[in-house]
Amino acid sequence: MKDYSGYSELKIFHHIDRIEGLLEGERVAPIYVRIKPTNVCNQRCYYCGYADNNVIEDRNVDNRESIDWGLLKNTLYELHEMGTKAVTFSGGGDPLCYSSIKETLSLVAELGFDYSLITNGQALKDDKIELLKGAKWVRVSLDASNANTYKRIRNVDSYSQVIRNIESFAEKKNQDCTLGINCVISKENHKEIYDICRLVKEIGVDNIKLSPVIEKKNNEEYHQEISFSVQEQLQRAIDNLETDKFKIVDGYTNNISSIKTYCRPYKRCLIQEFFAVIGADAKVYRCHETAYRKQGILGDLNKESFRQIWYKPETIESIKKYDVNENCTHKCAFNNRNIILNSFLNIDKNHVNFI
């Protein structure tokens, strides 16, 4: 049986040439780059770590900032020449609010990138659907089953429009474009989890991933009050709603973001050898979580090209010396992948044939 693997931690092993390069001491080209083209957003979710600089410590986001199109265009050509395979457009703000998003999506398709986009769905319509229907995946952030909850969380009255946009995209997208939902679970919506799963299945979505809101103060206590109800609904949804064509990804139960401090069983973040983030401020960052934070900056595209930043000795040395247990106590989307990669790269080669 083929498992649903859109979120598999093992995807990196389809790029064994890059892993072998790393084993041989090479600085390999990035496989995947996340681009945050703008910090402008048409919604204002109360929990957003980009809309409110107080949600994540030391993060500094200018909500009016967007990357210059000429600079982004040149960088995309450069990434293509370097051998980067995939790009995702996300926030920051909502990428569909980027003034040059149409030109951007047209170019990545022309260059042959695998591309994807994360949006709140409010602007997912008309010619933007045409440009995105050939993406590998599109994920819409949706965390309500009705207009009242939606407005409380997102401070906009666009619920009905967003549902129509999702349904329209589901009908028009290419068959191999996966349409997913990102749902953030909070006290505002914790009674609606089953209903949200049922709703998105009914409007043609392929999967939904549910994760906990990060409450800066007393996060564990916050989720203790709602976790039993949430987990009961999640299990019921999995039992009653999942099919071969609709999957529910539980990113809530046992999620490490519910732990105040987290010590990883490794020191080195090996994902940084294959991945980077470009912000709306034109800076290159280590990852999502360090974006717009001083500790995450690898370089500035206004001063150097991406290639120069990626291959310069200072970047290589900085990545090698970056100790995650000193610098990263936050939730990490790449944690399991880092565990696997560190284990793989540290194998005693004298014993590898004893499988």
Describe this structure in words.
The protein is globular. Strands 7-6-5-4-3-2-1-8-9-10 form a 10-stranded mixed beta sheet. Helix 7 runs parallel beside helix 9. The longest helix is centred in the middle third of the chain and has 15 residues, at 227-241. The protein has helices at residues 16-23, 69-82, 101-111, 127-132, 147-154, 159-172, 193-202, 219-224, 227-241, 306-311, 313-321, 324-327, 335-345, and strands spanning 32-35, 86-89, 114-119, 137-141, 178-185, 207-212, 247-250, 275-278, 283-285, 297-300. Strand 3, helix 4 and strand 4 (137-141) form a beta-alpha-beta unit. With 355 residues, the protein is of the alpha/beta class.
Short account of what is shown:
With 355 residues, the chain is α/β, with parallel strands linked by helices. It has 13 helices and 10 strands.
List the helices and strands and how they pair.
Blueprint: H1 16-23, E1 32-35, H2 69-82, E2 86-89, H3 101-111, E3 114-119, H4 127-132, E4 137-141, H5 147-154, H6 159-172, E5 178-185, H7 193-202, E6 207-212, H8 219-224, H9 227-241, E7 247-250, E8 275-278, E9 283-285, E10 297-300, H10 306-311, H11 313-321, H12 324-327, H13 335-345
Parallel strand pairs: 1-2, 1-8, 2-3, 3-4, 4-5, 5-6, 6-7
Antiparallel strand pairs: 8-9, 9-10
Helix pairs in contact: 2-3, 7-9
Sum up the structure in keywords.
single chain, 355 residues, alpha/beta, ten-stranded mixed sheet, 10 strands, 14% strand, globular
